[in-house]
Structures
1.
Amino acid sequence: MKVLFIVQGEGRGHLTQAIAMERLLTRHGYHVTEVLVGKSLSKRLPGFFTRNIQAPIKQFSSPNFLPTRSNKRANIPYSLLYNLLKLPEYAESMRFIRQRIKESQADIVINFYELLTGLTYFFFRPAAPLVCIGHQYLFLHNDFQLPASINKGELFLLNLFSRMTSLGASKRLALSFRSMNPDKKQKIFAVPPLLRQDIFYQEVSQHNYIHGYMVNSGFAENVYEWHQKCPDVPLRFFWDRWEEEPVKRIDDTLSFYQLDDMLFLRQMAGCKAYASTAGFESICEAMYFRKPILMVPAHIEQECNAYDAMQNGAGIVDENFNLERLLDFAKTYQPNAKFAYWVQSAESIILNELESLVPTHFEEQMYMVEEFI
C-alpha cells in the first residue's frame, strides 16, 4: 500500500513523528512514496530528519508563525500580515501538493499538521483518503479538559487552525498522554504518542545536569540569567540558532547545542531533570524516561500541552526557566507508571486505525459508483 506524508516543518515534534511513522509502516509492508515538508524562510530542515527519512523529501512554501523581537513567542498580528502577502505563493504550494498526491498514486495521505494539506483537500478534493495526526486534535475532543485561565480568543484561533489542517480528513488521530473514548462525531480517535524506535534503546541513567530544549532561542537569556545565580548546576540546552557552532560552550557548566536528535535523546536519557517550551513530543520522551519536567509554554498550543501533561503527572509549569523550581520538584517527583505501557501500544493501535480506514474508503467509493450507475 502506498502512503504519502505531508509534514509541517516547524519545530521538532512533527518531524520526529514522521520518522517514527515511516519506520512503523515500513515494518508492516507499507511503502512511503515521498515526504512533502512545508518550510519557512526562517527555519531549515534539521540534519536528523534528512538523515533518517528514507523516502524522497520535497519541500514547499508554507505559512508559519514569526517570532516577536525577543524571539520567545509568536507575533500573531505580524504573522497574519506576512502570510496574507504570501497567499499567491501558498496557492502554488497547494497545486504542488495536489499534483504530488496524484502522481504518487497514494492509497493514503497522512498529514502531520500541515495547514496547506487541509486547504488542498478543501479546494481540490484529492481521491486518496486523508488521515491527520497530531496532539492538537485532542483539544477538539469533547472530553478534553482545558485550563480555566486559557485565553478563549487564542484557543478559538488554535482550534480553527487545527480544523483547517484537517479539512476533508477521514480520521483525526489525536496523540494523547492517555487513552480516551473516540469522539466519532468529529472523527477524533485518541492514540498513544508516536515516538521513534531509538528512544526504546537508550540506556537511562541519572547524572547531575539539567537537559533542556527551547523552540525559540530568545529563552536563552532566561537560562543564562539563572545560570549566573547558580553556576554550579550543569546545564545542557538545545536550540534552533543555526548560525552558531554545533556546540556553544559558555563555560564549564553551560552549553547550547544545535538540534541533533540522537544526541538530544542521549542527553535526555542521562539527565537529572528536563526543561522545555512544552512541545508535546519531547514531553512524552521525558515522561517515558521518567524524568521530572519544567514546562515553559511559548504559545497557546504549548499552554494546552503543559496543562494536559501536568494533569498526567509529568511535571510543573512556569512562565520562565525557573530551574530552581524544577530541582525542588525533582526531589518529590513520582513518575506516571502507566505511561510506558500506553506508549508501547502505539504500533498496534495506530495500525488498526489506518487499516480500518482503507476498506471503508473503498466501500464508499464503490457505493458512489453504484449510485451513479
Note: The two ends are 28 Å apart (CA to CA).
2.
Amino acid sequence: MKVTFKIWRYDPAKDVKPYFQDYTFDVKEGMTVLDCLYYIKENIDATLAFRASCRMGICGSCAMYINKKPRLACETQALSLGTDVIEIAPLPNYKNIKDLVPDLTPLFEKHKNVKPYIIPENEQEFLNPTGEYSQTPVELEEYLQFAYCIKCGACLAACPTVGTTPDFPGPQALAQAYRYNADNRDFGEKERKIQ
C-alpha cells in the first residue's frame, strides 16, 4: 500500500522554523513506523534525524507524535493506523533538537529530582548488610506496575499541565516517587516530598 509520511523537519543550523516534508512509498504488512523511518533514511533522505535503539519497546528512544498521539515508533504498525497519510512529529512539551529528536533533559532532571533509588533507614546496614532485604509477592505488587516505566517521555508530551507549567514534575517523576515510597525497603518519603 502506498503511504505518504508527512514528517516534521527542522535543522536549527539552517531552518528559520519547522516544516513538514512528504515521503511516499510502498509500505508492506508488518512494517512499523520505525521501519518506515529507517527506509526513508536509507533509501530516500539520509539527512532525516530521529532517535531509536532497541526496536523492541524497551528503551523508549523512538517515542514521537504519530498522527497526533504520543507512541513508540517501534511498536506502531504503519498499516494499522488505517490511513494512507501518516504525520510524524517530535514529542511536544520538549525543545526540538533536530527533526524528530526532542531534548529529553527536562524528563531526566525531573526523574533525578525525586531521588529514584532506595533510601535506607540505616545506611551502614544497607551498605554492609547482615541479612537479605527480601519482599513478599504482596509487598512487590504495591509498586511493581510503576517500576515498568521505560522513560520514553510520552507521558510528559501528553500532559497538559507540563505544557503550561514547566516546573510541574509530571506523571513520570510522580510515578517514580510513588514506586520508591511504596517499596517497604525504602525510608525516603520525606526526602522525596514533591513541592
Note: The chain has two domains: 2-102, 105-181.
